[in-house]
Amino acid sequence: MTDMTRRRTLVAVGTGIVGALAGCQDLSADGGSDAETDTAEDIFSDESDDDGVGDGDITVAEDTDGDISVEGTVEVLADVEVDGSVEAAGVVLEEDAEIDGTIDTGGTVDLGDDSEVDGDITAGGDVRTAEDVEIDGTIDTDGAVVLGDESEVDGDVTAGGSVTTRTDVEIDGSVDAGGEVYLGNGTEVDGDVSGESVEEGDDVEIGDDDDSGDDDDDDGLGWFSFGSDDDE
């Protein structure tokens, strides 16, 4: 049996769409409420153990209520919302997808354009976002972190590897990296930034840097005191 054969689609598990689920599985809902319940469970856990943890990969193709826990990878398709937490070997969100809960994975997390995670992200591998991604929680990973243009993180970013932000990224917390840190143009970090090295692009704000006109940091502000420096 190939991986593609084992891969299955979690169409939905919410109420009101069990009949559609039964059709996708070539099963009938004529057996009443018991048959409908079994159908919904079969779609999610046809290869699961007694704890309801799936063995294979899952693709979530419709809005879904409840937590998802699988040993494989979870892929949430575009414009789909998961109202619950996700625990998996890896997590992929396509454009405009949303997880209303935490992500816990031993692998990587890839978040597409305009996707949202309403909770903390804990990962063993890299965490990567495309543009305009919102994470309402912390990022804690053993790997690297790459935050795409105009992404927002409402919490600390902790990485065993490097941390890279693209343009106009906002981090409402601190950055602590085991590797190098590069903050792209217009990045704002409310807390401290630490790593093997820290490189900043233009117009980067860290902590209280925005009131640092009296400090040695004259990035873009040197002109302000130019006249007085030439006075003798």
TrEMBL record:
Residues 26-66, 103-128, 148-232 are annotated as: Disordered. The keyword Ribosomal protein applies. This is 60S ribosomal protein L36-like protein. It comes from the Archaea. Keywords: Ribonucleoprotein, Ribosomal protein. GO terms for cellular component: ribosome. Residues 33-66, 189-220 have a biased composition (Acidic residues). The keyword Ribosomal protein applies. Residues 221-232 have a biased composition (Low complexity). InterPro entries: BacA/B, Trimer_LpxA-like_sf. Signal peptide: none annotated. It comes from Natronorubrum tibetense GA33. The lineage of its organism: Archaea, Methanobacteriati, Methanobacteriota, Stenosarchaea group, Halobacteria.
